[in-house]
Structures are given as structure tokens and as C-alpha cells.
Amino acid sequence: MRREIDSEKCLEIHEEGDGFFELERRRVSFIVRSKIRKLVGNRKLGVAWLILDPVVISLIYLFVFIVIRSNPNPETIFIGISLFRVMQSTFLGGTQFLSDFTAGLRVERVSSSSIRMSTVRFRFIDSFLQSFGVGVVLLLFFESDVSAVLYFFIIAQLIGFLFEGFGISLFILVKRVPDMQNIFRYAFQLLFFASPCLYPLSKAEGLHYRANEFNPFSYFVESVRMVFGLDSTFNEMSMEVLVILFVLLSFMSLRGYMKIDAIRWEVSRWGN
Predict the structure, then answer these.
(1) Interval 52-100: pLDDT, tens
(2) In a 3-state reduction of DSSP, which class is residue 104?
(3) 141 lies in which domain range?
């Protein structure tokens, strides 16, 4: 691999000789494994914590709701918290995706395509682990249909892919204005309670309900609840707004993934 560099861009040119694609595959696998090890850290249960975390959090909120006698549907809470945590972690992860993005490999030896593939592969694994525990709980304890649980897994993957790319597209903004990271974290804390995460959207009224019609998470989570046969207003929500939100989110997400090389080049120039 060689690069042609000018003042505006850095163009990668791949020399596809013997072993090139095998080397790329190994680099992607190495980066993904390193990211997983970094995520797990030195915790004894390792990857199991990624699976157990949304289950434990859901049980805590379920207990709180029972104590205040709001009689929640447990499945509603499990689904909402799991999908919300996937959305939050992938978006915030995207805004910081260049931190240790080569897993210790020399940056000039790692192509942007390797970083892109390792980012997508890691996000697939992470989103699956975050939703797997809840999926098992829904199957074993609530006797949910296998097809409904599979749909839940698919939506978790879709959320992870879209919001990771969306976060990447905002990476330059976060690097230039570091305070944006804190703003995003506070925004997600507000969204956690304002979005239909702990309750179905049917419980919202007036401005609260109308605001959630422009919240893409509402469509994702309400569609899953509808498939599970739970309280859901998905069929009553605006499909025109859904299409617009999905197109905008997809555009921002794909823009983020496709601009990884330009982002790397921009950041490298700041260090000069």
C-alpha cells in the first residue's frame, strides 16, 4: 500500500500482490480482538459483563417501577433498555472511534479500509453481545416467539450500524469542540427518560408524544414491541416521518463510514 498526498487529501493505492488481502484480513481481526480486550479490561467475567449489563439494568428499573406500583410490562422494559444502550454506546463510540483505532499497529501500515472493516465488525459483535442476554431472557422466561427475538436482534444490529456511522460523521466536530462529548452524554441522559425506553409510547401525551414522533429510536423500539405483541403505537405513527428520519440517519451514517480516510487525514494535519 502506498499513498499519494497533497494539501487536500491522502489517496491510498493498494498494491494487490500475493498475500495482500490475507494481510488485510489479519489486520482487521487483530484490531477487532484488541478492541474487545480493551472493552473487557481485566474484569473476571470478561465478555459476560457485556451480555449481563442490560439484563441487570432492566431488572433494577423493573424493581423500581414495581415499588412505585406502576405495574410495567417487564418485556417492554427489557426491550427498551437494551436497544437504547446499543444506540447510546454506538453513537458515543463513533464520536471517539479514532482512539486507539489501529490497536498499536503503525498507522502507515493500516489502510482506511481495514479500519472501516474492523469498526463495522467490532460494532456487529458489540451490538450482538449487548442484545444477546435480553434475547435469551425473552425466550426462556417470557416464552417469546423465536421470530420476534430474531427481529429484536436485527433491529439491534441496525441501530448499532446506523448510530456508529452517525457518530463517526460528527467526529471532527467533537475533536474541535471537546465539550460536545459532555453535551452528547447529557442529551442521552435526557433521552433515556424522554424516549419510550422504560414505557410504551402510548403512555406519552401531547407535546411529549409529538416530540417522540421525530425521534428515530421511538420507531425502532415500538416496531419491536409490536412484533412481540406488546403495547405499541407503531401503526399509528407517521410513516412519512419514519422514511424521512431513516433516509437522513442512513445518509449521515454512510457519510461517516465513507469519510474515514478524510477524517484520518484531517486529524493528522492538526498534529503538524
Answers:
(1) 777 877 777 776 666 555 556 889 999 999 999 999 999 998 888 766 5
(2) coil
(3) 2-270
Nearest CA among 203, 232, 16, 21 for reference residue 114: 21
Hey, which residues does 5 pair with through a beta bridge? 10
On whether the CB atoms of residues 87 and 184 are closer than 8 A, the answer is: no
Classify 106 as helix, strand or coil: coil
pLDDT per position as a tens digit, 231-266: 999 999 999 999 999 999 999 999 998 888 777 777
Query: Whole-prediction pTM value?
Result: 0.78
Nearest-angstrom CA–CA distance, 215 and 163: 13
Greater pLDDT, 195 or 22 = 195
| Distance, CA of 112 to CA of 260 (rounded, Å) | 7
- Residue 248 cell numbers, joined: 437522513
Task: Find out whether 103 and 170 touch, Cβ atoms under 8 Å.
Answer: no
Would you put residue 69 in left (φ > 0), alpha (ψ -120 to 50) or beta?
left
Give me 34's grid cell. Answer: 484488541
The secondary structure of residue 12, as a DSSP letter, is E
Rounded CA separation 156/176 (Å): 30
- Give Cβ neighbours of residue 108 (< 8 Å, ≥ 6 apart): 3
Contact partners, residue 17, CB within 8 Å, separation at least 6 = none
> Which residue has 427498551 as its cell numbers?
80
How many structural domains compose the chain? 1
The C-alpha cell of 174 is what?
A: 467533537
- d(CA 270, CA 272) in angstroms, rounded, equals 5
**Strands (E) located in the chain:** 2-5, 10-13
